[in-house]
Design a protein that fits this description.
homodimer; mainly alpha; two-stranded antiparallel sheet; 8 helices; 4 strands; about 5% strand
């Protein structure tokens, strides 16, 4: 697989984020582009047609998933994955006292750490996977060219739930229970945030997989069926 | 299976519950007992040795499981299962406006409705299952006699996770993450609250089963393994 970032502009962008000293957003338009630099040009069309889906892809790509509950030792709800690569001392300077959090929370946050570039690679991969779902909107020719240049291929109806292997329908993004979409971003290995390892899954499948790797999950449910006499 | 309540006193107890007009706790000591009536005599020993386990059995038996989040339309956190048998008009008189809740919440609450007697039958069954776990405390001879009289048998190391069929260790009750025990009460059919249908399961197994019946769950994971080429 080629590096999707190779053909991209890569110019540093200004940010008002309080993490600016340790976090540098970049332009991901094609090299030699005209006009203004943009961080997520591949999401612009989705932002117009399906704003919440675009926001979800952006959020799941560059932020850690949030704590499911709120308390002093639960840690931040969502935080930049690349910030989680920094050491405790640096984080403390940004007001994040890792020593105050429970060890389990710290481990979870550190597991979700990923470089900014990996986060952007994941964002492009997820965007293509969304367009490749059944009933997805059509990408413009310009966008199709962008994906080709970054090493991805638009191929309608080719996106499956990474866990249960059933086709995913774009319209499931709309269904939400308790504010949570029926489609979730998932990781074959929950500790790896790379394009090869990330995809979409049904919410119920993702919940069932839990913190296991997909391989561990398959072995686990195989054992269940075996002991239940259902194999 | 005999009715566990048959050999029991059954005398009505006074309650300060605001639901008193529609909820009558009873005495479940053996018929002809001496001394004071008691609602949960079979839990007294556990209350002394493992208070939280006893409380958990009582709570899971007679209350609905709580809403996982808090908002006006999320419904009550925990409520008596037998109160959920009453019609909307009656509930409104008790300050519970079902018409204000989302249809999904109402369905969930109604699914968990059960008669008071069924709740007590479940409580006895769960107590026996807890004593039958590996590393469980020993029940007194008096308590063993009580269980026999109600149709249950103490049989050490005979309690398995209802879902994955691995033996359950009593000490797992102590392990808690985010205040939630590693052992949960589970339902083979989530809509049936009867002794035959209720048991204990690992938290991760219970989460994976979700709102499915155990049969549906086994079929579902079988399909997953099939499509993933792991069968």
């Amino acid at each position: 697989m080629m590096d999707p970032l190779l053909p991209l502009c890569g110019k540093r962008l200004l940010t008002r984020s309080k993490y600016a000293p340790i976090y540098t957003p970049k332009c991901h338009r094609l090299k030699g582009h005209e006009g203004k630099c943009k961080e997520f040009p591949f999401l612009r069309e989705l932002e117009k047609s399906h704003f919440r889906v675009a926001q979800k892809i952006k959020r799941d790509s560059i932020m850690t998933t949030g704590a499911a509950w709120k308390s002093d030792d639960a840690g931040p709800n969502r935080i930049l994955r690349c910030v989680m690569l920094e050491d405790d001392l640096t984080l403390k300077r940004f007001g994040l006292n890792m020593a105050m959090l429970k060890p389990g929370i710290v481990a979870k946050l550190r597991d979700k750490a990923a470089s900014y570039d990996d986060c952007v690679r994941v964002a492009i991969a997820l965007t293509v996977k969304a367009y490749n779902m059944k009933s997805a909107p059509l990408a413009s020719q310009k966008l199709a060219t962008y994906f080709e240049a970054t090493g991805f291929t638009l191929e309608p109806n080719s996106t499956f739930c990474e866990i249960c292997r059933l086709p995913l329908d774009f319209r499931l993004f709309r269904n939400a229970r308790r504010g949570k979409a029926e489609i979730e971003t998932c990781h074959k290995d929950p500790r790896l945030h790379t394009p090869e390892n990330v995809g979409f899954a049904h919410r119920e499948c993702n919940i069932a997989q839990g913190p296991k790797t997909l391989d561990e999950f398959y072995s686990w449910i195989r054992g269940i069926l075996q002991r239940a006499g259902r194999l």
